[in-house]
Design a protein that fits this description.
heterodimer, A: mainly alpha, Cytochrome Bc1 Complex, Chain D, domain 2, 3-stranded mixed β-sheet, B: mainly beta, 4-stranded antiparallel β-sheet, 3-stranded antiparallel β-sheet
């Protein structure tokens, strides 16, 4: 009898623990819901749209002829098919590196200079705003990255290997935190990015506005921060490895609905 | 010049709900930069709203309000097609007014 009651108590305690955990995650979801109504990412979308149409740079041209993969000037639906292979640059490019290519080719900006600029500064801030607007134009659409070109398949494979590559003083890999279901850091649920994590989660949520620091974060900056947390050296902006990680996550997220630009804690 | 606000105004019953997103740094004056120098305070100090040109709301703000602030308020008796304008002034004297039509 005694044994039974102890087991019963333990089971009850476990239940209570699970419930408390659930409500913490629910609490964050509720907080995000409340913030969604006034997502400051909208301000960056407006800025990005204006930048797209504005004649700028040494060539005094707009970006309206920029080819994001669906033909010159086609913005809607471009975000959910990136990164992809571009014949003109002979490279797989993500949204941000593609934007820099366009700013270089159409507007005459120095792409190398932009790539070296810190996030949130100068032309880099403009790239982020443009990416925010372009992502927003595909809101509600589902990810469907092309994987027909050998370079795109190679990019996926590089991304996959990078994802599982363990290194640094803590012997971390992306998969260490994002390779299993039901993991979390403190109160943040961690999406399993080795498969489709679901609508509006992981790759389908960035760019996002971070309330805690009031910054608009692009996917490149998000990856930069993952590298920082793993105690890896910072990757170069638009480097092959960051784009490959994007391809890996994007292809895995096939069919997931994009909610970008999202709002984050 | 300051970036534009995003204003949405929607009729709900006998009133209109106005939602405003402002683009502003809202620097408190308490933070230091990487060189250890204090970043000067820079925040919105006054916000007012007009409904068809008539002032319906004024408020005084301070450095405790977040960066890129969001504000929501109701205007009694506002109808679709009415004009709502919101103005902010910051402590540096910069100001910005944007207008929206109630829908």
């Amino acid at each position: 009898m005694k044994h039974v009651s102890i087991v019963g108590a333990a089971a009850l305690a476990l239940c209570a623990g699970a419930q408390a955990q659930k409500s913490a995650a629910d609490g964050i979801a509720e907080y995000r819901k409340m913030l969604e109504d006034g997502n400051p990412a909208e301000l960056f979308e407006a800025k990005g749209e204006a930048l797209w149409k504005q004649k700028r740079g040494p060539k005094n041209a707009s970006l309206e002829q920029c080819d994001l993969g669906k033909g010159p000037g086609i913005v809607k639906g471009a975000f959910v098919e990136l990164p992809r292979y571009f014949a003109d640059t002979k490279k797989v490019q993500d949204l941000e590196s593609r934007l820099v290519t366009c700013m270089e080719a159409l507007q005459g900006f120095n792409g190398v200079e932009i790539a070296k600029t810190a996030f949130g500064r100068g032309e880099m801030a403009n790239v982020t705003a443009l990416a925010t607007w372009i992502a927003g134009e595909s809101r509600g659409m589902r990810f469907n990255l092309p994987q027909n070109h050998p370079e795109e398949q190679k990019s996926y494979e590089i991304g996959k290997r990078t994802f599982f590559y363990r290194a640094g003083p803590y012997d971390f890999s992306c998969a260490g935190c994002h390779g299993e279901d039901g993991k979390r850091i403190r109160m943040q649920d961690l999406p399993n990015l080795t498969k489709n994590p679901g609508d509006g989660i992981g790759f389908a949520a960035w760019p996002a506005y971070r309330v805690s620091n009031g910054q608009m974060w692009s996917m490149q900056l998000r990856l930069n921060d993952c590298y920082r947390q793993q105690r890896f050296p910072y990757p170069g902006f638009g480097s092959e490895v960051t784009i490959a990680l994007g391809t890996y996550m994007g292809v895995n997220a096939k069919g997931a609905e994009s909610i970008a630009p999202a709002i984050k804690r | 010049m300051a970036d534009p606000m995003r204003i949405r105004a929607q009729v709900a019953g006998d009133k209109a709900t106005v939602r405003v997103l402002m683009s502003h740094e809202m620097e408190t004056g308490q933070r230091k930069d990487s060189a250890g120098k204090t970043i000067p305070a820079w925040y919105i100090s006054e916000v007012s709203a007009t409904h068809n040109g008539k002032t319906v709301m004024t408020s005084e703000w301070g450095p405790a309000v977040s960066k890129n602030p969001f504000m929501q308020f109701n205007i009694k008796g506002a109808k679709a097609g009415d004009k709502v304008a919101v103005t902010w002034v910051d402590n540096k004297g910069d100001k910005r007014t944007d207008e929206a039509t109630v829908s």
